[in-house]
What we know:
single chain; mainly alpha; Arc Repressor Mutant, subunit A; Four Helix Bundle (Hemerythrin (Met), subunit A); 2 domains; 4% strand
Amino acid sequence: MRINTLESSIAEHQPLPDKIANFVREAIIVGKLKPGEKVSEAKLAEELHISRTPIREAIRMLESEGFVSIIPRRGTIVSEFSLEDLYEYFQIKACLEAFAAASVVDLLTDRDLSKLKRLNEEEMNVIKVGDFSQYLRIHEDFHQTFLTRTGNRKLALLMQQLGFHIRRLEKIFNDHPEIFITCSETHGDLISAFESRDPKRVREIVEQNILNIAENIRQYEDGLQGNGAT
């Protein structure tokens, strides 16, 4: 894998190890780096014209997140991932996001609720025209609208890390739009629960929606294996 495109952005305001970690992580998420493939510090250093020190820091970050494994005498390898791994990520996401959504019921403004309604309409519209990459962007915006209201930075970081792993399923999402339709319909129910200021109902809807998606994904094991899962 060549990452020359990183060179032009090295001067941007971001710690270099973070920038390298972001780039390598994205390559893993989109499948440019496959499970079991070696991540060479030497090649990265040569292509970016930088020392190995920030690269090692970036690799340690990715190891702590579960994206790579450092194996004696083999070096750094892109970690394998399985259907069960991803199902467990969804279970954790269901708990955290349900808690977060219920905790902001009384914090959402009329403007927030209007935005959620608009985004839900946009979701349904892009599904009709089959623009699923656009759907993913709108879907993320929908969830961030209420998640950011928690003001909990630790929770936001955990949710971000879960999101990185779940994005490895994008191929399945693109191949099976029926997942989107069910999810968008549930978003309408969630908006109604927010409007009713009903934290119990909000928690139930969010948790069940995410767990349902996880169960649906289990039906598409062949497609997931095509993305590198074991």
